[in-house]
Amino acid sequence: MLEGNRVSRISVRGFAVASATAVTTVGAVVGVASGSTGQPTQAAEATASDATLLADIPAGQQAQVQTSSLKQQAQTQAIAADTAAQKSAEESARKQAAEDAVAKQQAAQDAKEAKEKAEKEAKEREAAKKAAASRSATRDASDFATQGSYSVAQVQSMARQMVPSGQFQCFSNIVDHESSWNYKATNASSGAYGLFQALPGTKMSSAGADWQTNPATQIKWGLGYMNDRYGSPCEAWSFWQANNWY
């Protein structure tokens, strides 16, 4: 308790310890930031033991010293709070940056996969459309009456009625190169037979038992073969041009 201009030494020393502790806290914060490992409590006690007692200060200056000490404590607390807030903000920023990078990478991957899927589906639709068009023949082999023999013109006429118009020229190109439209053409060395030089010729029996004598049956088989293996006669012709066989 204050008695006139005198102050209890116990109270004054407690005030000095509090003030010294506050000052030492600033040093501790700075020391932690720089990597030092001090003992703040011990340093505060050492500082307090060496501190000038308030009772030793002239009475006229005691209020000024008290005010200065309190300001110093407030500054110490503010510095500590600012340092903690800055560390928290930096950690939050690093975490957010990492999350943003992962999200951006995932978005790019999703966009790439979506584009590839759309392109694949578009190609599949186009291929299906072409295949459907190539299979839409106007007449079937069974629509033609059987004859004992057929001229090239008759065989070509059958083909024009069975093969879609947009695919006929490609179809014709293959037949020209394989048999010159001779439905009885036989390769003496390999045994390949008919308009399409099927090897063996018996393959064409899937289109009809009269495959050896009926060009319409051979045309049905040949068109089905081109559609099933290549997608269309024009795709088959493209392959033939690159390889001289199909």
Walk me through what this model shows:
The protein contains seven helices and no strands. It is mainly alpha-helical and 246 residues long. The protein is 68% helix and 0% strand. The protein has helices spanning 9-34, 40-50, 59-135, 152-162, 165-179, 215-230, 233-243.
Any descriptors?
mainly alpha, disordered N terminus, 246 residues
Layout of helices and strands, plus pairs?
Layout: H1 9-34, H2 40-50, H3 59-135, H4 152-162, H5 165-179, H6 215-230, H7 233-243
Helix pairs in contact: 1-2, 1-3, 4-6, 5-7, 6-7
Instruction: Give a short account of the largest sheet.
Output: none
What is the terminal-to-terminal distance? 114 Å
- Whole-number radius of gyration? 50 Å
Shape: rod-shaped
What's the mean pLDDT score?
A: 79
How many strand units?
A: 0
* Helicity, as a percent range: 55-70%
Unreliably modeled segments = 1-37
Query: Percent of residues in beta strands?
Result: under 5%
Question: Which structural class matches the secondary elements?
Answer: mainly alpha
In N-to-C order, the SSE pattern is HHHHHHH
Instruction: Please give the count of helices.
Output: 7
Summarize the structure.
The chain is mainly alpha-helical and 246 residues long. 68% of the residues lie in helices and 0% in strands.
